[in-house]
Amino acid sequence: MNSTPASQYTWAGRFSEPVSDLVKRYTASVAFDQRLWRHDMLGSLAHARMLARQGILSAQDLADIERGMEIIRLEIENGQFQWSMDLEDVHFNLEKRLTALVGDAGKKLHTGRSRNDQVATDLRLYLRDGIDDILRLLGAFQRALLALAKREAATPMPGFTHLQVAQPVTFGHHLLAYFEMFLRDGERFIDCRRRVNRLPLGAAALAGTSYPIDRAFVAAELGFEAVCENSLDAVSDRDFAIEFCAACSLFMTHVSRLSEELVLWMHPRVGFVRLADRFCTGSSIMPQKKNPDVPELARGKTGRVHGDLLALLTLMKAQPLAYNKDNQEDKEPVFDALDTVTDTLRIFADMLADGIHVRADAMQEALQQGFATATDLADYLAKKGVPFRDAHAVVGAAVKAAEQKGVALPELSLAELQAFSPRIENDVFAALTVEGSLAARNHTGGTAPAQVAAALLHARKRLETLLVSVSA
Ligand code: ARG
């Protein structure tokens, strides 16, 4: 069972017995943390430059380290690097190879540093890039959403509450509701990025180091906004990763709502939209099927991202200071949330850009069937002096009568309507049309097409301002 002699491990000095293959596999993280290699290298180079500046490493040592790292970079990029589970994680894999390539300088790299502050730095650097990717993709996705909302700014559809027809809205207005949700998601990612962007290096194992290090220099080299102010906190807490997964979870929750609506809208009984074939799949047995797989999967993947958040919260709960090996488990949930969100954004941007065919006729038909302008009739009466509660009751009776007759409200004659209230006059029909109902909701945040057009302009400005604040 035991294959690797204890002496082979970097930390094996005080050990007399090797670990079993099972323990080796259980404790190793290289299978998943190797994706941190680029950021591990960046952190190491900044650390080495600082050590040289401070006179802790010689200029020759630094040159050797830089030369060795460059070779390793090419080896990894060309797929020639030999990753070894015996070397546990990405840090030892790179350090061992560096030492093999440049000798003693490689062994000096870890001066004044621990894997504890190293891995926390790597994850923060990685996540910072990940958030920037998300923000770029979110920008493209939101622009596609705005373009669709602009095309459909005046397209009437039934607005629902309780999934029952409630009042007319425009499809553009409906889509802008999602724009608001996703804009807040963008704000959350940006806010989270500020707290990700702080430097743990210098904390060493937990207490700091006895070398005369310059943390501010390393922070500036790596583009961190500040250093983590307490060494114990720097190596132990992962709240920045939890916040990231929380932002991802909310984003996916919003995606799942849009997805659920797409599935519903695609149902043949509803038929509000058709989804391009490339976002759907068929059935192995039922030849007629065209299933909305992409929205369904996005709805499902929301669950795994929520799971990532819960995994990290539970990982951190009741963990004593400072670093504990538990924290090695922080990476996979972060990677999984990041991968799921970026893939989802790419697919949805594509789908919204030209994968959705809107069936305005089906929306119009659904509007005619649901007494969507009943509130408008009540408002009409209230404006003529009928107390709103009484108006509500009058219209309820009118709806009941229309339903029994099998007609829509505007299809009742003036005489029939007047039987419910003498205040009803010929101008009632303007209030009962979908267009009249829409146009009447003419205030900030309302569904009147003029307001939707203004909201679109404002939305575009807010989006671009938010995105500029990131690249600045
Ligand atoms: N692979 C480890 C991790 O991901 C690196 C830090 C290990 N530190 C330690 N003291 N064992 O957290």
Short summary:
By secondary structure, the chain is mostly helical. The protein has 20 helices and six strands.
Write the layout of secondary structure elements.
Layout (H helix, E strand, L loop, with lengths): L20 H7 L2 H4 L3 H17 L5 H19 L12 H13 L1 H5 L6 H37 L4 E6 L2 E7 H26 L1 E2 L15 H8 L3 E2 L3 H6 L2 H28 L6 E3 L17 H24 L14 H24 L1 E3 L1 H10 L4 H10 L4 H18 L8 H5 L9 H5 L1 H7 L8 H23 L1
Helix pairs in contact: 3-4, 3-7, 3-9, 4-5, 7-8, 7-13, 7-20, 8-11, 8-20, 11-12, 11-13, 12-13, 15-16
Describe this entry's structure for a reader.
The chain has 472 residues and is mainly α. It is built from 20 helices and 6 strands. The protein has helices at residues 21-27, 30-33, 37-53, 59-77, 90-102, 104-108, 115-151, 171-196, 215-222, 231-236, 239-266, 293-316, 331-354, 360-369, 374-383, 388-405, 414-418, 428-432, 434-440, 449-471; strands at 156-161, 164-170, 198-199, 226-227, 273-275, 356-358. The strands form 3 sheets. Strands 1-2 form a two-stranded antiparallel sheet. Strands 3-4 form a two-stranded parallel ribbon. Helix 9 links the parallel strand 3 (198-199) and strand 4 (226-227). Helix 4 crosses helix 5 (90-102), helix 7 packs parallel to helix 13 and helix 12 (293-316) runs antiparallel to helix 13 (331-354). Bound molecules: arginine (ARG). Residues 29, 33, 89, 115-116, 119, 323, 325, 327-328 line the site of arginine.
